User: Fold these one by one.
Assistant:
Number 1:
Amino acid sequence: MSTDAQHQHPTAPSGTGYDEVTLARLTADAHQIVGRYPQARSALLPMLHLVQSEDGYVSRSGITFCAEVLDLTPAEVSAVATFYTQYKRRPNGTYTVGVCTNTLCAIMGGDEIFDELSEHLGIGHDETTEDGAVTLERVECNAACDYAPVMMVNWEFFDDQTPASARGVVDDLRFGKDVVPTRGASSVCTFKQMSRVLAGFTDGRADEGVGAGGATVRGTRLAREKGWTADPAPEQPAESAAGAEADQPAADATPSTGAEQSSAERTEETPADTSSGTAASADEATPAADEKSEPAAQDTTSSTSSAPTTSAPTTEGER
Ligand code: FES
């Protein structure tokens, strides 16, 4: 596709191997995705997630579909799909279980958790159980080091894990029990469902739960208790200072639901909101400065399928 008009209205590719109904649906979705970008090729990453939402991995049909819609060669699409580990080259399990084994999580037990799951499930890194339920991965830092060691299930957080709690989570997943993340969303969706979210189609769960829990806002709480403040910013020329002020929200402004940082400010509504170690706001429910957060759902064999004991997840960015 080479014109702006075509960028906004991708035609239906003919050589993908998808049946007519599937192709029409994917093409309509592609139309929405491509329309978000000034150049069609910029839509490749969400398009690959769209393919995964259909096929469970980046299939040959999906590569052809992306190439034809975005006016790229299959080789160009493959080059991108094989660069990022979030794009799967063979059918993925219903749940991607990613154990962080980066520095801090490894020190706090991440390696033991991975080894436990690997032995328990009988699979290694980037392998899937025979029943197709779980794909196990070592993952890099999930930006949740304050809850180390961290495990993710389809990019939803399971904080403060132990080998036993992690084993409980994967058993519940395989037995079809409800599994509740320890922070964020109050449920875990399937890999295909999450892939559709990553393609840019909301599932309505983005504002569930508390994103910034107790451990995350502990420094803020401590500073307020102690009356600590940052040094004042250096004087700025009048013009640039006025411009900077215009870009900043009022200090006491309360974000509306769905706005940036709204999760940390909203009232408790979901099971994940009331779990331990999370805070409804930076001023409330944050553990005392010297208080250590309790591990989340340690024996998750039962806890993940009943009342949530802690918090939940997010989506991971491209790695
Ligand atoms: S090292 Fe594991 S979340 Fe940062």
Number 2:
Amino acid sequence: MVGFVNKVIEFLFPPACPLCDTPVSTHGQLCGTCWAAINWIDNPKCIRCGYPFPADLDLGSAPMCPVCAAGKCELDWIRSACVYDDASRMAMLPFKHGGRIRYARFMSHAMIWALRDIDIDADIVMPVPLANRRLFHRGYNQAALLARPIAHALNIPMDVDSVQRKYRPDMGHKNSRERAANIHGVFSVAKPDNIRGRRILLVDDVMTTGATFYELRRTLLASGAVSVYGVSFCRVVRAI
Ligand SMILES: [Zn+2]
Ligand SMILES: [Zn+2]
């Protein structure tokens, strides 16, 4: 019966690339052109934060970027599916601000792919919380839309209400120091029993400076979390 219903749905709504509407074979899949336009992060990359190195660089089996080598990684490890650039922005902006929640399917699949080299021991998957005021206006937390299929694929429970976030005006184009100051103290743990002793995988759509991940980790560790990891769809890559 489910197979028949799926066939009817496919007939009425043939699968199309979510970004450009070109016909594809499976719902939620990108077409070849859009797939090729996105700058997916592959090896070589930093084993801790996933920072991508130029493809022709031979850095051995466990390369580390200077930030992580200095012990300043924002989390215990971070992975991102692709670089934040013109191509990924074409997906990110409508997803975050234009209600294109169906993009969550290919984005979350790409994020699961980005975790392929990690032996995951997390107890909880946690989308980066959105302030209630922002959730009310947008109608959805885009990080939660990505976290749900990831939690499902990893078979790990998702936690959406142990941590709350205060509303602060948008950070816009502020530099990293201003972003860090703006986010300081923004998170609070509402249910510490759910955090104490846990290893937590944070999920966000984009990692800009890492300030959000860093602040959330600080808050979670203060409530007794053991480890805090992160995965984002894309990340801003600056020269280091
Ligand atoms: Zn396309
Ligand atoms: Zn690194």
